[in-house]
């Protein structure tokens, strides 16, 4: 079993230590370091090469959003960022997703939820808590105004079926649910998802969902 290497970035020592204890007790997960703020997180990622960063949003020196942008922005960056927040509709979470985060987790999550979230984000093959993430993306995409034309042009690189799959990803459907909806094999859906991510230069399904909302391919309910 490949061990998932985790870095915890939070300015509260009790949060860092608590999550470290919980995750180190899980098979296949190892906390390789802790960061006290965003600048420390960026430096520790370069030093320790974790697979997943648990990133608090509100931190001194450098906030979690800018830290996420710096960590995930460089070409070839593979580390995934899982945002920690107190509220499931925190407006800053949407900005973090736009900055490159792969999902988010409430700080009061159970040990099992925490471990599952880390595994899901590390795998990059499913939205984290799709019902919540979808609602958050939809809510705050309303703030972005008109769809971005350059992004809309990139949708043209997709085939009709890939565009359909992208729309269903943004609606929070899993590969199995998409396969059932389109009456195709789940492996076929996985192939479509991989091609979508490559064509659009996206890292994972969460980024694909953000892209779909920002281009206007999927609109929030009521819009």
UniProtKB/TrEMBL annotation:
Q: Does the keyword Cell membrane apply?
A: no
Pfam families with a match to the protein in the record: GerE (PF00196), Response_reg (PF00072)
User: Which superkingdom heads the taxonomic lineage of this protein's source?
Assistant: Bacteria
**Annotated keywords:** DNA-binding, Phosphoprotein, Transcription, Transcription regulation
Q: Which residues carry this modification: 4-aspartylphosphate?
A: 56
Q: Which Gene3D superfamilies does the entry link to?
A: 3.40.50.2300
Q: Which residues form the Response regulatory domain?
A: 5-122
HTH luxR-type domain residues are 151-216
InterPro entries cross-referenced by the UniProt entry: CheY-like_superfamily, NreC/VraR/RcsB-like_REC, Sig_transdc_resp-reg_C-effctor, Sig_transdc_resp-reg_receiver, Tscrpt_reg_LuxR_C, WalR-like
Q: Which PANTHER family match?
A: TRANSCRIPTIONAL REGULATORY PROTEIN NARL-RELATED, TWO-COMPONENT RESPONSE REGULATOR
Spell out the protein name for this chain.
Answer: Response regulator
């Amino acid at each position: 079993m490949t061990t998932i290497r985790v870095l915890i970035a939070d300015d509260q020592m009790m949060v860092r230590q608590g999550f470290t204890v919980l995750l180190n007790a899980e098979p296949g997960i190892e906390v390789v370091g802790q960061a006290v703020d965003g600048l420390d997180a960026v430096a520790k990622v370069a030093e320790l090469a974790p697979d997943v960063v648990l990133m608090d949003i509100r931190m001194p020196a450098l906030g979690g959003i800018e830290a996420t942008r710096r960590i995930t922005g460089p070409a070839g960056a593979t580390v995934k960022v899982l945002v920690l927040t107190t509220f499931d509709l925190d407006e800053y979470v949407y900005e973090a997703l736009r900055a490159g985060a792969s999902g988010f987790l409430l700080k009061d999550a159970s040990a099992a939820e925490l471990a599952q979230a880390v595994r899901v984000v590390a795998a990059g093959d499913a939205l984290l808590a799709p019902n919540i993430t979808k609602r958050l993306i939809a809510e705050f995409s309303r703030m972005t105004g008109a769809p971005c034309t350059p992004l809309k042009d990139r949708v043209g690189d997709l085939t009709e079926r890939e565009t359909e799959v992208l729309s269903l990803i943004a609606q929070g459907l899993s590969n199995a649910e998409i396969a059932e909806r389109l009456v195709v094999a789940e492996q076929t859906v996985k192939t479509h998802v991989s091609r979508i991510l490559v064509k659009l230069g996206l890292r994972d399904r969460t980024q694909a969902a953000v892209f779909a909302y920002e281009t206007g391919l999927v609109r929030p309910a009521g819009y």
